[in-house]
Each structure stands twice: as structure tokens, then as C-alpha cells.
């Protein structure tokens, strides 16, 4: 069991109306310039947050230190993850990729470990509300983090019944594994989807979630998630809040504040401008998945314009 988690107490009844918020971004060296653009647009457009945490692998820390300010800190994953999880160059990829190994988990890739960092930062951070933003996001409009709060409650992003129909790819597997990690036997999967970027979690609820997983399984929460390997931190947290906490301390919202180009090919100049022009009124940022390959200079030119 992880002794770092302090016993839970019930303070929600006396919660202040305004909670302190922080932004959390997990990144890595190939996305450094995208993360730089994110930071520039955050400084230009975002208000109502106390701090910005950038979570990276140990060897990427010196590179990302360039982005630090009095209100922005680079956090080494060694300060977040247990010392029994070891990272090395993967010989199966001819040493082009990284792999995290331990005797307690399956081999983990970078996208797995980024999710673990997002959860583990709850021990490191001090703020009440953690707002998760990917490093390939750029803000285009003013945005205040008060949008994530209502009378001491925190906004939980949820697409109601989004997984009740057709093929949802791996989402059902992730939902099922989330339920298993939390000890939820019925339903096996949730009908709701909680996956997006620019979403908020309560820090105290994240800590409670980790304690719950450890209580159910009798071992470190990372060992539990890493042994299943196929997991989503968003589905895990969403199911915990809705099915374990019964929504306590939260309210639901389905509007997406960030418009994301999740899949497909790189956009042309005209397609990119159309993508931005057709943002819905509540959307204040765009996310261009870095693996798609949309030219960063094109994104920067439009953002700066």
C-alpha cells in the first residue's frame, strides 16, 4: 500500500465557494515546441489559475526548464512515480522509443506513463482543482478557470450515454478496466464517456480514488493499472466520481471547451482556418494531435494572427 496517501476527511460541507486551481500538462521532448506554444497562449489568454505544472520524464527536465516561470514548474516524473518503475530505451523499437518496466506491471509506453503522471501529481500539487490540458493545445480566446467551479463543486466533463451504441474502439475496454480497478462489479462498463482535454478534477477526489484502488487490491495503484495496461485516466476518474462518490463534490458538463482534431490527416491551410472558424461559442482552444502532423508553424501563424 502507498503510505503517501493521508487518511480521507470530510471537508466538503465547509468548502469555500472559490477553490484554487492549477493547470496540469504532461509532455515529452518531441512535443516541446507545441508545449512552448501552449504556454505562450496560456499566459496570453488564461486567468483564474494559481500555477501550471508540466510533467515530464527525467531526461526531458533540462529541456522543459526553459518554460518555467514563477507560476510554471517542470515536475520530474521521479518525484511522482515509484522507484520500482524503470525507464529505458526499448530495443524492440531499435532504441527509438522508451519503455517503462517493473516486476509489478506490464511493459508501459509513454502514453501510459503520461496518464500515471496526471494522477500522481495530486500528491505533489497543492491546489484544490487540477485542470488537465494536453501539450498540443493552444488557447485562442480569453478563458477563466472559474468555469470549472460552481458553489464549491467542480465540473466533471461527461458525454451522457456516448458509449451506449455502436463501436467505441478501446473505450469499452478502458471503461471495463476502470471498473475492475475500482471494484465496481455492476455495470461492467459505464454508458458515459469522460475523455477530453481541458477538463477538471478535484485533487482530494484523485487521492481518494488512489486509496480506493489500493484498498480493493491491496497493492500500489500504479501496479493495478499497469498490470491491466489498457486504461484511461479520464474514464477511471469519471467512473470513480459517478459510481463510487455518487457525484459528491461535482457537477456535470457536456460542453467541450477545446476543439480537438483527434484523427485523420494533416490539415491544409484552408482546412485549418475552417476548423478554427467553426468552433462553437464555448470553445476557447484548439487541440491538434501531434502525431497527425499538422504543421506547427501554420498553427503558430494563425494563433498569433
From TrEMBL:
InterPro entries: DUF6492. This is Nucleotide-diphospho-sugar transferase domain-containing protein.
Amino acid at each position: 500500500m502507498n503510505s503517501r496517501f493521508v487518511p480521507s476527511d470530510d471537508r466538503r460541507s465547509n468548502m469555500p465557494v472559490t477553490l484554487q486551481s492549477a493547470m496540469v500538462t504532461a509532455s515529452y521532448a518531441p512535443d516541446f515546441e507545441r508545449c512552448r506554444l501552449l504556454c505562450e497562449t496560456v499566459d496570453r489568454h488564461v486567468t483564474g489559475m494559481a500555477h501550471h505544472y508540466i510533467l515530464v520524464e527525467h531526461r526531458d527536465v533540462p529541456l522543459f526548464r526553459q518554460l518555467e516561470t514563477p507560476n510554471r514548474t517542470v515536475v520530474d516524473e521521479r518525484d511522482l512515480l515509484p522507484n520500482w518503475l524503470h525507464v529505458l530505451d526499448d530495443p524492440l523499437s531499435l532504441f527509438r522509443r522508451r519503455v517503462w518496466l517493473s516486476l509489478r506491471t506490464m511493459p508501459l509506453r509513454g502514453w501510459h506513463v503520461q496518464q500515471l503522471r496526471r494522477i500522481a501529481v495530486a500528491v505533489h500539487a497543492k491546489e484544490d482543482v487540477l485542470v488537465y490540458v494536453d501539450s498540443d493545445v493552444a488557447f485562442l480566446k480569453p478563458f477563466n478557470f472559474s468555469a470549472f467551479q460552481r458553489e464549491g463543486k467542480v465540473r466533471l466533463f461527461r458525454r451522457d450515454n456516448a458509449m451506449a451504441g455502436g463501436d467505441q474502439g478501446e473505450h469499452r475496454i478502458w471503461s471495463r478496466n476502470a471498473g475492475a480497478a475500482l471494484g465496481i462489479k455492476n455495470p461492467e462498463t459505464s454508458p458515459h464517456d469522460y475523455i477530453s482535454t481541458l477538463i477538471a478534477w478535484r485533487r482530494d477526489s484523485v487521492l481518494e480514488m488512489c486509496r480506493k484502488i489500493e484498498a480493493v487490491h491491496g497493492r500500489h495503484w500504479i501496479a493495478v493499472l499497469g498490470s491491466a495496461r489498457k486504461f484511461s485516466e479520464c474514464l477511471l476518474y469519471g467512473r470513480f466520481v459517478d459510481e463510487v462518490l455518487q457525484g459528491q463534490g461535482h457537477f456535470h458538463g457536456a460542453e467541450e471547451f477545446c476543439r480537438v482534431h483527434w484523427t485523420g490527416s494533416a490539415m491544409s491551410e484552408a482546412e485549418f482556418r475552417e476548423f478554427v472558424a467553426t468552433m462553437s461559442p464555448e470553445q476557447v482552444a484548439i487541440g491538434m494531435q501531434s502525431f497527425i502532423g499538422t504543421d506547427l508553424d501554420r498553427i503558430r501563424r494563425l494563433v498569433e494572427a
